[in-house]
Amino acid sequence: MRLIATAAILVLSWTHESLGVPVQKQAGSAAANKSPASIQGLLSQGKTADAVRLARKTPGAAEAALQELLKQADLQITDRKIDEAGASLQTALTFAQAYNRASKSKPLAMDPLAGRQFRLEGIRLNDRKEYAEAEAILRKALDASLRVKDSGLEAGVRNNLGYALRHRDKLEEAAAEFDAARLLAEGQNDPLRAGSYNFNLGEVLLALYRNETALQAFRRSAEQSAAASRKSLEGSAYLRQGIALSRINSASPEAIKFFDKGRMIFEALGDDRNVGWAFYLAADHSAYRNPAEAAAFGERAIPYLERAKDNSGLLLIYQFLANMYARTGESAKAQKYNDLARRAKS
Q1: How many alpha carbons fall within 13 Å on the CB side of residue 340?
Q2: Which of 152, 160, 172, 232 is least crowded, fewest Cβ atoms below 10 Å from its Cβ?
Q3: Which structural domains are found in the chain, ordered by start?
């Protein structure tokens, strides 16, 4: 009874879609560096005309203020504050348009803003599961990022585009986008985004049954997530390494070590559901090699899945244990779990 797969196994599956991008502040004079804070304050009060007048008094102030607004939106996307990011980009658009009307000889570049607007719309479409529409708009965001050579924006867009492609079953294209995104993030020494992008890459590679390269992606994700202090993603990356190893060699005990590493992280986090699934994955890996060991792992999963109220997980573990105890000749226990499975279905 092999259940090692990538479909809806863990809480963290396919949740690393909209990490933000780093925005570099533009250099300028001390006066320019002070002006954006005042401009931001005016903009937050809806005083766009006053903000434009102040920005025109100091060289570089308008560019710095716009960059601050874009940075704010990027951080809000990172935190999945999608509505707030939309408001920040609308403020940026209103300010940039007003400034360009007043300063036609030195207008603000609009492509960095347009790229982020396209990206945010793509994320919203992904959230609504309108993946074809998301793909189209995210390609516009990608074009904008390439025009302005904004590698941070490009990395984020490629990750979002990979997400849309993955859900359209365009697995080869999705893998290419996730790989490009993770290379960009790694080149920027950004373990936060690289850890997520590698995780997403590994998921697609598992779906393509490229288990060796998936294993490598999850190893990178675990290391990068640890460096970024993202323990939950680190734990998921360990569990995924175990899945890849189990596929590569179903008889090797090495996979158990990774399930155990992930489990210990989730125990420390108090994440009962993923602790239960870690035991379940260890049980499934042991099933052919040692049914008694598999049953022991399965028994340990139950209290965690019960606390997490994961009824579908409990049904699967009951069915699994009934099968294992039938194989070990423990008919009373096999009957017990068959009965539990029937009740769980009703």
Answers
A1: 21
A2: 172
A3: 249-346 (1.25.40.10)
